[in-house]
Amino acid sequence: MSPAENANFVPRASLADTVYERLREEIMHGQIADGSRLNQVDLAARYGVSRIPIREALRRLQAESLVIATPYHPYVVRNVTADQVLELVDIRAVLEDLALAKRKELGPGTVAELRRINREMASGPGGEAFLALDRQFHTLIAGPDSMVVGMINDVRDKVHKYVSNMVDAKPGRTAATQEHEKIISALEAQDMDFARRLMREHVMQSRLFIMNRLAVENTEPPEDEKPKPAKAGRKAKSSR
């Protein structure tokens, strides 16, 4: 293999990782809808790779319950019901509470870093940058070495597409950062019981948002049942 060819060579494992990350992101962000069939031949052509890294990526996504294998079609994006989404948020509330229950206290340096992250969230544009900072905030509270963090992030990934709209609007971001500040103040005062209560309320606010969003989606008529705009009437011929 020439030096030029070697420079462009991508190990199969790295290729599978890249495909996995792209597919996972598209599923999490709703770019590939729930219930969509994932044809390996089509995906291979789309990403410009062979079917081997596609198959490896799909197996990893299946292990995370983001896709499922079916008898008649190998892989389909998991269709999560409204009740399951709300159940996941309830699970996150329990996990966040457990993480805080295991923490004795947070030092001044950690509290200062939480405030810095929260200020950046408050002044930032929202969207994915806001959600990434929010994940940092909650990870820092739980403790980076906590085994609970991985479980919390797994739940967050599964409901990502349902909460992303919440931080697109300024009021949603403002409410979240104000709730964060209350949690920080409780942690600074080393009042862990109060911090746990505030954390539960904070997570439940996202649950309320998701409930309202799902209610709107479930009441909106399908595209083929939406009223069509009235066609403009033909102009009457003027009499001469």
From TrEMBL:
<dbReference type="GO" id="GO:0003677">
    <property type="term" value="F:DNA binding"/>
</dbReference>
<keyword id="KW-0804">Transcription</keyword>
<protein>
    <submittedName>
        <fullName>GntR family transcriptional regulator</fullName>
    </submittedName>
</protein>
<feature type="compositionally biased region" description="Basic residues">
    <location>
        <begin position="229"/>
        <end position="240"/>
    </location>
</feature>
<dbReference type="Pfam" id="PF07729">
    <property type="entry name" value="FCD"/>
</dbReference>
<dbReference type="InterPro" id="IPR036390">
    <property type="entry name" value="WH_DNA-bd_sf"/>
</dbReference>
<dbReference type="InterPro" id="IPR000524">
    <property type="entry name" value="Tscrpt_reg_HTH_GntR"/>
</dbReference>
<dbReference type="Pfam" id="PF00392">
    <property type="entry name" value="GntR"/>
</dbReference>
<dbReference type="GO" id="GO:0003700">
    <property type="term" value="F:DNA-binding transcription factor activity"/>
</dbReference>
<keyword id="KW-0805">Transcription regulation</keyword>
<dbReference type="InterPro" id="IPR008920">
    <property type="entry name" value="TF_FadR/GntR_C"/>
</dbReference>
<feature type="region of interest" description="Disordered">
    <location>
        <begin position="217"/>
        <end position="240"/>
    </location>
</feature>
<feature type="domain" description="HTH gntR-type">
    <location>
        <begin position="13"/>
        <end position="80"/>
    </location>
</feature>
<keyword id="KW-0238">DNA-binding</keyword>
<dbReference type="InterPro" id="IPR011711">
    <property type="entry name" value="GntR_C"/>
</dbReference>
<dbReference type="InterPro" id="IPR036388">
    <property type="entry name" value="WH-like_DNA-bd_sf"/>
</dbReference>
